[in-house]
Design a protein that fits this description.
By secondary structure, this protein is mainly alpha-helical. The chain has eight helices and no strands. It has one domain.
Length: about 240
């Protein structure tokens, strides 16, 4: 099951990149939905599950602090890459930008693997959101390279790296054993990651050039889909 989902992330990323090359005028709707899906997973799935599992070992205050820590960690990583991209030429912008997206995809794979250590249901819900987000990752990776003067061949190479990164992330969680006592903390950390990516990255991006009602609706739809998935899964 996990292997199939990991392969799905690979295909979703590739499809997102292909979409970016052919239908760039619809990207705002896809990014809006992905933002809503990520926020939905953070609030409706990861946060409740982190509290439920983690409170047997950790206080709720510690779990909440860990969520904030996840937000801060990802923000710092994002800002470091952003500042370096600002100070370097187009070549360095492509490398840092595409590299940061690939690292994010690796973390997506770790999130899937960690979630499946909790239960198959939690893993499936997290994987669904990651799949939607990986589609936008493919879009962003291609867009990052092309926006800074890269050729389509170079964009495709980075796209393949980005698509393989979640497979590596999932594999790491099965090579390195994760103690049960830390699963709640890990889920809380990724809740912080997802809140940052959804609210600080995807939402501004999808509304930047297309502040339309349809874009807002696609974000609400993304959250609603995840809510329904979690609700009917009985979580």
């Amino acid at each position: 099951m996990v292997i199939v989902i990991a392969l799905g992330t690979f295909l979703a990323t590739l499809l997102g990149g292909i979409f970016a090359l052919k239908w760039s005028d619809k990207l705002h709707l896809i990014l809006g939905f992905s933002a809503g899906a990520l926020l939905g997973v953070a609030f409706f799935d990861l946060l409740p599950e982190a509290i439920s599992i983690g409170q047997t070992t950790w206080s709720i205050e510690t779990i909440v602090v860990d969520i904030a820590l996840g937000f801060i960690i990802y923000m710092l990583l994002d800002r470091v890459f952003f500042m370096q991209c600002h100070e370097e030429g187009h070549s360095h912008k492509r490398q840092f930008g595409a590299g940061s997206l690939s690292f994010h995809s690796f973390l997506d794979g770790v999130a899937i693997g960690a979630a499946f250590h909790v239960s198959a249901v939690v893993g499936a819900v997290v994987a669904a959101a990651v799949l939607a987000h990986d589609f936008s990752d493919g879009i962003n990776t291609v867009g990052m390279v092309l926006r800074h003067g890269g050729e389509k061949k170079l964009a495709f190479r980075w796209l393949v790296i980005d698509a393989l990164a979640p497979l590596v992330g999932v594999g790491v969680t099965y090579i390195v054993a994760i103690p049960n006592s830390f699963l709640g903390i890990i889920l809380a950390l990724f809740a912080g990651f997802f809140i940052y990516i959804g609210a600080s990255d995807l939402l501004p991006e999808c509304h930047h050039d297309h502040p339309t009602r349809f874009t807002t609706f696609s974000t609400i739809l993304g959250m609603f889909v995840i809510y329904l998935a979690v609700h009917f899964a009985g979580l």
